[in-house]
Structures are given as structure tokens and as C-alpha cells.
Amino acid sequence: MRIAVTGSIATDHLMTFPGRFADQLVADQLHTVSLSFLVDNLDVRRGGVGANIAFGMGVLGTQPILVGAVGSDFDDYRAWLDRHGVDTGSVRTSEVLHTARFVCTTDADHNQIGSFYTGAMSEARLIELKSVADRVGGLDLVSIGADDPEAMLRHTEECRSRGIPFAADFSQQIARMNGEEIRILLDGATYLFSNEYEKGLIESKTGWSDEEILSRVGHRVTTLGARGVRIDRAGQDPIEVGCAEEERKADPTGVGDAFRAGFLSGLAWGVSLERAAQVGCMLATLVIETVGTQEYTLRRTHFMDRFTKAYGDEAASEVRKHLS
Question: CA-CA distances (angstroms) from residue 78 to 90, 163, 187?
């Protein structure tokens, strides 16, 4: 099963300031703020929802096709993804813009000052999925994740016009989208991904009830935080899957992307929806135990031991053969 993953590709530049931002602000001079913070460390991490999902699928062995736009500074990142089983042949390289990046400084009170540079991400709207499909011999599913909004709309319309099944996954972009855009992006989706809060926001912005949305999508996949995930289908009982037990909680960033990577990998393997959701929850648990969205290591024996403990021998026997 050939799955293309569209979405942002970015790097995160994370810094720590040992003091407090509040101590540096003068109440009657806030209209002329001019500050520079001497930071203790710089942590550069690979990120972007498209790249995070593709990385997880790559380490699970499902060879995803990453679709997005980057700058000429992407070479090292590309090599990392290639090395972890991601097809980067359909990533567009801008001639004038840098790869998107998030620059953030956190103080001792965990307050943050950050900036997001979209950069080359704006050129994702220029990518045609037909050229991607022609290169790899066709596409069975396109996951349309948070990216340049025009790119998300174009990819969705192209999937509909060419009859390619697609998954709608707005995540961070839902805040800036209006009801009409969201209706366009979800209508006819085979899968609609969101967390529990986003689920309510989608219904509020579109004006559609849960039942109306289920009549327009094949499956509604809602992550529930520590309670796992629920999959709803019109006229059928929901599928509910709990989370695997955590060994520790280090950083929740990228957990949703990891779930999607595991779930999409399960679809690629052809296992049931319940098994796919279990794989997604297990991979998400690995990420929450690691600082960084692509810094975890998937050791197959360790993965399957924990998967078996969480979901039982029968589930493990169906998944193990795909990881061996």
C-alpha cells in the first residue's frame, strides 16, 4: 500500500534562559521593548508534522512518501529521513527560501517567547500529487496534514478529482481555518483525524453535528489523550483502544504524529482498524517517553514485548510478522 504523507517539514531551535522574562520587563516601557537574552543552550530538533509522521512510518518499515516543501538547507535532514526509510523523492526544494523553522526561548518559569518562520512551506501549494503518483506507480492513500493552507486545499481537491482516498488531518491549522475551508477539507475523507478538543472545534466551525460529519467521512479517528483513541463509523459501534503503559513521561510533543504514523502503518499492513490503532498508541507511548519528536529508537523485540503486555498475544501475533 503506497501512502503519501503531506504536511509541514521544519526544524525547531529551542533555547533556555536561566532567568525570568518578567524580571526584564519594565511596565511603563512595554511599547518600546528591546531585549536580548543570553541563553544557556541551543537544542536543534527535526520536526514538522509531515516529517514526524513519515519518520514513524519509516521506522515501522512501511516506506512512506513524504510530500512537502523545504529550502536548500534540507540536505542533512533529508539524509536522516532517507536513512530511516522515508521516500523523500517528492519533497520540493525552494530556490529562494529556507526550510520552515520554529525558534523558541523558555525561561525558568516555563514561559516561552517563540517565532515560526514558514519559509519554503509556502511553496507546498505548487506540488501536484499526480506527479508524485506517476513517480511511485500510483497512490493508495494521501494523508493531508497541517501545511500551507493553500496546499492543503489543493491536495484535497486533487484527491477528490482523481479518486485518490485521503485522510484529513488539520491539527495546528484548524485555528486559522474558517468553517467553509474545514467543510471542503473533510468532505469525502476516508479518515478524519483530530484530538478531542479539535473534534468539538470542527463541529462548531462547520455547523455540522457529529452525525452529519460521520455521514461525510468514512472513519472519524479521535485521540483522547491518556484514554487512548476512538474510531467512529456511521451506523456501527465505535472501536476504542487504550494506551500502553508508560515507563516515564518526558515530553508530549509529537505524540499525535506518532499515533498517526502507527495507525497509517497498520493500514499499509492490512491489519484491522483495532490493530492499527493499537500500533499507533504503542508508538505514541515511545514518543512521550523521549524528548524530541524523532529521537526515539524502535527496537522490535522491546516494542513487541510491550505491545503484547498492553494488547495481548492474539494482537501481537498479527502485528509481529509485519515487524520481523
Answer: 11, 30, 33
Cα–Cα nearest to 15, from 115, 101, 104, 124? 104
How is the beta sheet containing 100-106 ordered, strand by strand?
41-47, 10-16, 100-106, 112-117
Condensed to tens digits (0 to 9), the pLDDT of residues 203-258 reads 999 999 999 999 999 999 999 998 999 999 999 999 999 999 998 888 788 899 99
pTM for the structure as a whole: 0.92
Q: From the CB of residue 43, how many other CB atoms can be counted at a distance below 10 Å?
A: 12
Phi, psi of 113 (to 5 degrees): -125, 120
Mean pLDDT, range 285-294, rounded to an integer:
90
Q: Give the burial string for 150-163 (b: 16+ CB within 10 Å, else e).
A: ebbbbbbebbeeee
Give residue 277's region: left, alpha or beta (phi > 0; psi -120 to 50).
Answer: alpha
Q: Give the separation between CA 225 and CA 255, rounded to whole angstroms.
A: 9
Burial code (b: 16+ CB inside 10 Å, e: under 16) for 65-102 equals bbbbbbbebbeebbeebeeebbbbebbebbeebbbbbb
Query: Which of 8, 46, 37, 236 has its CA nearest to residue 127?
Result: 8
DSSP count for the chain of H helices, then E strands: 11, 13
* SS3 state at 40: coil
Q: Which residues are catalytic?
A: 257
